[in-house]
């Protein structure tokens, strides 16, 4: 940098010199130039060091002194000191008389180099752009040459600038020695000018810096260092920040890409899910449309499973020891799900006996646990099946506890009855979108072989003659209703003519059952403080209408709490208690006979031997799903009863029944039936008119050809069911005839003219009127009806049991009949047929199991219209009750509202 400046200066110095030499004589021109430069340099130096040609001041050097001072470097040092006072601390001054000294030349050279060196060092210290001594070497050399002093400065700091050196050499090479000082002077003069300019500009810079940072010099430098560091740090930080941000941007870009890809994936997945959802929706829509089908299927399957389990299921329950017996030893050795092992005394054979049932509940089983296994049956009722649950066992073994609960009822101790109804309401409510259910209950007891309505608190009816008149008044509807037997959904399960109360909630049912329990015959015996002296039966009628198809399902459930068998010597029964016990035992023995016959697949099943077996006929005969709770007491002194009870229960468990039948009537069939009925009713009316005017009683046979039509829709129903137009025709006409002869019948209502036998056979079956009744009091038309009716009734009964005439039944049955005043002659054709088949031609056979006991019971649908307040028809109850003296009364059908 310095060398460049110097070379420029040198060139500038030389330029005018060279131009002039181009025109004129080089020598003279050089001389002129040298003189000029000398003059200019002298001027400048003079200005710098204050040389005045006139020598105004004594200290100002003269021209000669100046020239000398320039030569020995004093001028340069002084010039620098002038710019920066004290910058060159040491200046080697020439002695005043040096010019006179013989070694003046040597001293001048020494001075020159010494001062020049000091000058350069100071320049460097000041931080000014410097040139090195060697830059002026030419001058030195020339001076040396000029003065004859061979002196060179060898210094590491003063290295030769090759270019400047060369330049100087080039400049000075053609110069005469005497010209060199002039050139040097000129050059130095330019150099000094350059110094001056630079120093000035540097001063300006410094001043500016000082102004902007008013601080000390040291502070400035440290600050500038700090600033530099700070800015460097800042720069570094910015760099790092930038790098980081760059990285972050990259990462963000990556994340964005990933998110985009994720979004894309999600969009695809969503699209997929939407399409899947759409498909699912379609499937659901299809499923919804087929909901009814599925429901139907489900019901079928469910009931098939139930059927597979067997229709009579037997559950055994062991009563715990009562508080007063807590120290006793239990006869129950071991219970394992469906097995129970009884520890037996030696007189009963080996040390223990085992029995198997569908389930065995130990003494600590809760009411809820016991009920849980019966729940499926409750559902079946709502599906249109008939169900019977009955409790059997020795007195005091816990039957009432299981069915109703203890005396002090709590929600936990509610028995099967309450829970079953509660479940019924619950399930019907669950199905309310698809089915509309109506539920009604009846509660009766069989006390001393009389049927009593427990919901009315009326005891056995007194026997008054007008009962018979009322009976006759009901005769016509009974006959008509008889024809509806086989259309009935209840098929013998319904309780005869008891008060049927519609219910809509469990609370209502609880109230009713409490009334029923209060009315039930209960007495204290030695075996039980509150021994039930009757068989009680709570019957629940359910009618469900399928809201979509209009089909009607009718189900019915008997919940029977039997009176307990007892050994009269143990129960110490006397008087009324004894009589009750005898009735109880007899009816239970009749039940045992029926079970035995069923278990042996006997052709004859003696249902008619007791009211109880008549009631349970269809529950035991295959029309219903039946569950028996068999109860045993754990006490040792009850071991004999326990063993006989368990044996009986095993027999019951072995009874195989056919599949239960669903009671369903489709809406379409119902509609068609009504249409046919109304058409035929119109026809019958027309024909009836003709017949009335022309017919005499023997002519009735002409009607067998089917020329007439029934007058009542129920007759039409029967016709639909059995296709027997002859019977229908007869019945229509018979009805009219009966009306005509009603006066005669009323005349015959005197009790003396009303033989007991004429009423026999009415219990449980209105179809089978005794011959004496027909012969004595009913006109010919009635006999005709009877004959036809029997023929029809026989033709529809095809059970195996039907094949055997009641007259051939065994002796025990005979005994039973005589005991219950049941004339053998009348018993033919009297019994509920458990299976209904289409009419068949062929020989007439009578059977106990022929007539469905539907005749004893109005259809639930007709009864459901009753309001709870007007639930009892006294006349009807008279019909259902037997007499206190054990003589039989007709059990007709209560007014059904038809
Ligand atoms: N599982 C049981 N847990 C607690 N106590 C019970 C249980 N079973 C029955 N009992 C009690 O035993 C006694 C007799 O029960 P319960 O009256 O139900 O017998 P029962 O078989 O109906 O008798 P009966 O045939 O004489 O009417 C009652 O005090 C009853 O509370």
From TrEMBL:
<dbReference type="GO" id="GO:0005874">
    <property type="term" value="C:microtubule"/>
</dbReference>
<keyword id="KW-0175">Coiled coil</keyword>
<feature type="region of interest" description="Disordered">
    <location>
        <begin position="199"/>
        <end position="229"/>
    </location>
</feature>
<dbReference type="GO" id="GO:0007018">
    <property type="term" value="P:microtubule-based movement"/>
</dbReference>
<feature type="compositionally biased region" description="Polar residues">
    <location>
        <begin position="200"/>
        <end position="215"/>
    </location>
</feature>
<dbReference type="InterPro" id="IPR027417">
    <property type="entry name" value="P-loop_NTPase"/>
</dbReference>
<feature type="binding site">
    <location>
        <begin position="393"/>
        <end position="400"/>
    </location>
    <ligand>
        <name>ATP</name>
    </ligand>
</feature>
<keyword id="KW-0493">Microtubule</keyword>
<dbReference type="Pfam" id="PF00307">
    <property type="entry name" value="CH"/>
</dbReference>
<keyword id="KW-0067">ATP-binding</keyword>
<feature type="compositionally biased region" description="Polar residues">
    <location>
        <begin position="843"/>
        <end position="881"/>
    </location>
</feature>
<dbReference type="GO" id="GO:0003777">
    <property type="term" value="F:microtubule motor activity"/>
</dbReference>
<feature type="compositionally biased region" description="Polar residues">
    <location>
        <begin position="814"/>
        <end position="831"/>
    </location>
</feature>
<dbReference type="GO" id="GO:0005524">
    <property type="term" value="F:ATP binding"/>
</dbReference>
<dbReference type="GO" id="GO:0008017">
    <property type="term" value="F:microtubule binding"/>
</dbReference>
<feature type="domain" description="Kinesin motor">
    <location>
        <begin position="311"/>
        <end position="655"/>
    </location>
</feature>
<dbReference type="InterPro" id="IPR001752">
    <property type="entry name" value="Kinesin_motor_dom"/>
</dbReference>
<dbReference type="InterPro" id="IPR027640">
    <property type="entry name" value="Kinesin-like_fam"/>
</dbReference>
<feature type="domain" description="Calponin-homology (CH)">
    <location>
        <begin position="35"/>
        <end position="158"/>
    </location>
</feature>
<feature type="coiled-coil region">
    <location>
        <begin position="662"/>
        <end position="689"/>
    </location>
</feature>
<keyword id="KW-0547">Nucleotide-binding</keyword>
<comment type="similarity">
    <text>Belongs to the TRAFAC class myosin-kinesin ATPase superfamily. Kinesin family. KIN-14 subfamily.</text>
</comment>
<dbReference type="Pfam" id="PF00225">
    <property type="entry name" value="Kinesin"/>
</dbReference>
<dbReference type="InterPro" id="IPR036961">
    <property type="entry name" value="Kinesin_motor_dom_sf"/>
</dbReference>
<dbReference type="InterPro" id="IPR036872">
    <property type="entry name" value="CH_dom_sf"/>
</dbReference>
<dbReference type="GO" id="GO:0016887">
    <property type="term" value="F:ATP hydrolysis activity"/>
</dbReference>
<dbReference type="InterPro" id="IPR001715">
    <property type="entry name" value="CH_dom"/>
</dbReference>
<keyword id="KW-0505">Motor protein</keyword>
<feature type="region of interest" description="Disordered">
    <location>
        <begin position="798"/>
        <end position="898"/>
    </location>
</feature>
<protein>
    <recommendedName>
        <fullName>Kinesin motor domain-containing protein</fullName>
    </recommendedName>
</protein>
């Amino acid at each position: 940098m310095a060398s460049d400046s110097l070379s420029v200066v040198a060139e500038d110095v030389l330029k005018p010199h060279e131009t002039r030499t181009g025109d004129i004589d080089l020598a003279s021109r050089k001389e002129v130039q040298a003189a000029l430069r000398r003059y200019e340099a002298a001027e400048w130096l003079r200005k710098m060091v204050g040389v005045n040609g006139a020598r105004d001041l004594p200290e100002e050097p003269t021209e000669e002194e100046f020239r000398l001072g320039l030569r020995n470097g004093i001028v340069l040092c002084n010039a620098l000191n002038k710019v920066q006072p004290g910058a060159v601390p040491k200046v080697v001054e020439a002695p005043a008389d040096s010019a006179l000294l013989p070694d003046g030349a040597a001293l001048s050279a020494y001075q020159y180099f010494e001062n020049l060196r000091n000058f350069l060092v100071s320049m460097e210290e000041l931080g000014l752009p410097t040139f090195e001594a060697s830059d002026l070497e030419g001058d030195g050399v020339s001076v040396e040459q000029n003065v004859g002093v061979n002196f060179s400065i060898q210094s590491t700091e003063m290295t030769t600038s090759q270019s400047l050196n060369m330049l100087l050499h080039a400049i000075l090479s053609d110069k005469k020695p005497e010209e060199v000082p002039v050139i040097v002077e000129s050059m130095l003069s330019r150099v000094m000018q350059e110094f001056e300019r630079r120093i000035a500009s540097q001063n300006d810079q410094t001043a500016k810096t000082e102004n902007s940072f008013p601080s000390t010099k040291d502070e400035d430098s440290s600050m500038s260092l700090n600033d530099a560091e700070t800015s460097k740090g800042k720069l570094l930080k910015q760099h790092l920040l930038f790098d980081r941000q760059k990285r972050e941007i990259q990462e963000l870009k990556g994340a964005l890409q990933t998110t985009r890809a994720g979004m894309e994936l999600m969009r695809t997945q969503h699209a997929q899910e939407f399409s899947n959802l759409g498909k699912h929706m379609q499937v659901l829509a299809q499923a919804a449309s087929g909901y009814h089908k599925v429901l139907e299927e489900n019901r079928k399957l469910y009931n098939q499973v139930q059927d597979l389990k067997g229709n009579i299921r037997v559950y055994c329950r062991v009563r715990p020891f009562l508080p007063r017996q807590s120290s006793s030893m239990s006869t129950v050795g071991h219970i394992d799900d469906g097995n129970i092992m009884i520890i037996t005394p030696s007189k009963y054979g080996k040390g223990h006996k085992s029995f198997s049932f569908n389930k065995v509940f130990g003494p600590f089983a809760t009411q809820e646990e016991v009920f849980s296994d019966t729940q499926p049956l409750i559902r079946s009722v709502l599906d249109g099946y008939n169900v019977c649950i009955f409790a059997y066992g020795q007195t005091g073994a816990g039957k009432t506890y299981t069915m109703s609960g203890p005396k002090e009822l709590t929600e936990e101790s509610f028995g099967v009855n309450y829970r079953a109804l509660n479940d019924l309401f619950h399930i019907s409510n669950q199905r309310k979108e698809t089915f509309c259910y109506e539920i009604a209950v009846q509660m009766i007891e069989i006390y001393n072989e009389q049927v009593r309505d427990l919901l009315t608190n009326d005891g056995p009816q007194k026997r008054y003659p007008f009962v018979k008149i009322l009976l006759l008044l009901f005769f016509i509807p009974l006959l008509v209703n008889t024809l509806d037997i086989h259309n009935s959904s209840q098929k013998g399960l319904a309780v005869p003519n008891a008060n049927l109360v519609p219910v809509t909630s469990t609370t209502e049912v609880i109230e009713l059952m409490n009334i029923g329990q209060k009315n039930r015959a209960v007495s204290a015996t030695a075996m039980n403080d509150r021994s039930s002296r009757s068989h009680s039966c709570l019957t629940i009628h359910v009618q469900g209408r399928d809201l979509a198809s209009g089909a009607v399902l009718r189900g019915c459930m008997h919940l029977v709490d039997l009176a307990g068998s007892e050994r009269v010597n143990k129960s110490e029964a006397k008087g009324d208690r004894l009589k009750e016990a005898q009735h109880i035992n007899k009816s239970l023995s009749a039940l045992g006979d029926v079970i035995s016959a069923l278990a042996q697949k006997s052709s004859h099943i003696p249902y008619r031997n007791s009211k109880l077996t008549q009631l349970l006929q269809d529950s035991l005969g295959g029309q219903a799903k039946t569950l028996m709770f068999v109860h045993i007491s754990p006490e040792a002194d009850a071991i004999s009863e326990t063993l006989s009870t368990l044996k009986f229960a095993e027999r019951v468990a072995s009874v195989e029944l056919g599949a239960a039948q669903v009671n369903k009537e489709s809406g379409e069939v119902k509609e068609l039936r009504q249409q046919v009925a109304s058409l035929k009713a119109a026809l019958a009316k027309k024909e009836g008119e003709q017949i009335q005017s022309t017919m005499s009683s023997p002519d009735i046979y002409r009607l067998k050809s089917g020329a007439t039509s029934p007058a009542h829709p129920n007759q039409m129903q029967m016709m639909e069911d059995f296709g027997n137009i002859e019977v229908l025709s007869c019945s229509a006409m018979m009805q009219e005839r009966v009306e005509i002869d009603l006066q005669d019948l009323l005349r015959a209502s005197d009790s003396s003219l009303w033989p007991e036998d004429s009423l026999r056979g009415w219990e449980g079956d209105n179809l089978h009127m005794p011959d004496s009744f027909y012969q004595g009091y009913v006109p010919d038309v009635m006999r005709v009806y009877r004959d036809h009716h029997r023929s029809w009734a026989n033709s529809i009964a095809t059970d195996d049991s039907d094949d055997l005439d009641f007259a051939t039944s065994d002796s025990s049955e005979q005994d039973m009949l005589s005991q219950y005043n049941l004339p053998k002659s009348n018993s033919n054709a009297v019994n509920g047929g458990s299976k209904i088949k289409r009419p068949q031609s062929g020989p007439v056979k009578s059977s106990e199991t022929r007539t469905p006991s539907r005749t004893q019971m109005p259809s639930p649908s007709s009864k459901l219209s009753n309001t709870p307040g007007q639930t009892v028809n006294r006349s009807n109850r008279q019909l259902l009750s037997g007499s206190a003296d054990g003589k039989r009364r007709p059990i007709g059908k209560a007014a059904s509202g038809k």
